[in-house]
Design a protein that fits this description.
This protein is mainly beta. It folds into four domains: about 55 residues, Beta Barrel (OB fold (Dihydrolipoamide Acetyltransferase, E2P)), CATH 2.40.50.140; about 60 residues, OB fold (Dihydrolipoamide Acetyltransferase, E2P), CATH 2.40.50.140; about 55 residues, OB fold (Dihydrolipoamide Acetyltransferase, E2P); about 70 residues, Winged helix-like DNA-binding domain superfamily/Winged helix DNA-binding domain (Arc Repressor Mutant, subunit A, Orthogonal Bundle), CATH 1.10.10.10. Helices cover about 15% and strands about 40% of the residues. It has four helices and 18 strands. Helix 2 packs across helix 4.
Length: about 280
C-alpha cells in the first residue's frame, strides 16, 4: 500500500511521457513527474519518494523532502491567505493547506507558525493545524522523571513556555528554568523535572551533565525517590553516616549533591537534602 504523507520505497514500473510510474508490488502505483526522474535508472529499480496529492488531488511522488511529513510538527511560513484558508511553504511545489478552523489564531502571509501535519480522514488530504495541543496526549505517559527528552517550543503562557515532548506529550518549562532566549519552533533537549499527579510534565532545559559527569548523582536521585524525596544527609554529615546510608565516600557525595543542587533538582539544608517539588 502506498502511504500519503510518508516516504515510500517504490519500484519503477514503466517509463512514460509525463514521467515514471512507480509501484509497491501490489495494486498501487503513482507518477514520479519528469522533473524528479533520476538521470540514470532502469525498470525495476527502487526509489525512495515522498507521496502527496497534486493540484488536481491525484497522488504524486517527489524526490524533494518536505519540511514535515504526516504526524510531524514543524515551523512553517504562511505564503498566502485566501477565502478558503492559509497556504504554507513546506518545501514542495504544492503548498500545505491550513483551514481556518485549524488556525489557533488567524494566520497572516509572511508570518511563521508551528503546525501539525496530518491526514484529514474526510478529504484524504494532507493539511496543517496550528491547534497543536489537540494532537498531544498525556493520559498514558511514555516518559518518567529525569528522562532526557526531545522538545519543540510550542507557545508561551504566563508562567512559562509550553513544549511538545517527544512529539507525543505536552510539557511546560517554567519561566524560572529559562536561562536563554528560546523561540516557538526551537528544537531542544530537556529533562523531565517532575511528573505531576495529573500527568502534566515539568521540563527543565538544564543540561543533564550530572548524569554524564557524576554517576553517583543518579544513585542519589533514586535514593531520594525511594525515601519520599528526602535523605537526612548534607554536606556537613560525617563520612561514616554517608557511607552507612549510601555506600559512598563523603567526597563523592558532596560532588554529586553539588551537581544536583546546581541543576536545581534538590535543596540542601541543615536537616538533609530534598527533591524540589
Amino acid at each position: 500500500m502506498i502511504h500519503l504523507g510518508e516516504y515510500n520505497t517504490l519500484e519503477i514500473l514503466r517509463d512514460t511521457e509525463p514521467g515514471l510510474f512507480l509501484g509497491d508490488g501490489k495494486e498501487g502505483e503513482v507518477l514520479l513527474p519528469n522533473r524528479y526522474v533520476p538521470q540514470d535508472f532502469e525498470i525495476g529499480d527502487k526509489l525512495d519518494v515522498f507521496v502527496y496529492l497534486d493540484n488536481e488531488e491525484r497522488p504524486v511522488a517527489t524526490t524533494d523532502q518536505p519540511y514535515a511529513k504526516k504526524g510531524d510538527f514543524a515551523l512553517l511560513r504562511c505564503n498566502q491567505v485566501t477565502k478558503f484558508g492559509a497556504f504554507l511553504d513546506w518545501g514542495l511545489v504544492k503548498e500545505l493547506f491550513c483551514p481556518f478552523k485549524e488556525q489557533a489564531f488567524k494566520m497572516k502571509a509572511g508570518s511563521w507558525y508551528l503546525v501539525h501535519c496530518y491526514l484529514d480522514e474526510e478529504t484524504e488530504r494532507l493539511v496543517a493545524s496550528s491547534k497543536t495541543n489537540r494532537f498531544l496526549d498525556n493520559k498514558q505517559l511514555t516518559v518518567k522523571q529525569f528522562d532526557e527528552v526531545d522538545i519543540i517550543v510550542s507557545h508561551p503562557s504566563e508562567i512559562g513556555m509550553n513544549v511538545i515532548v517527544n512529539n507525543i506529550h505536552l510539557g511546560l518549562v517554567f519561566n524560572d528554568d529559562i536561562y536563554k532566549d528560546i523561540s516557538v519552533g526551537d528544537r531542544l533537549k530537556g529533562i523531565v523535572k517532575k511528573v505531576r499527579d495529573d500527568n502534566k510534565l515539568d521540563i527543565s532545559l538544564s543540561q543533564i551533565g550530572y548524569r554524564n559527569i557524576e554517576p553517583n548523582a543518579q544513585f542519589i536521585l533514586e535514593a531520594l525517590n525511594d525515601n519520599s524525596g528526602f535523605i537526612p544527609l548534607h554536606d556537613k554529615s560525617s563520612p561514616e553516616s554517608i557511607k552507612e546510608h549510601l555506600q559512598m565516600s563523603k567526597k563523592s557525595f558532596k560532588k554529586a549533591i553539588g551537581a544536583l543542587y546546581k541543576d536545581r533538582v534538590i535543596t540542601i539544608n541543615e536537616n538533609g537534602i530534598s527533591l524540589i517539588e
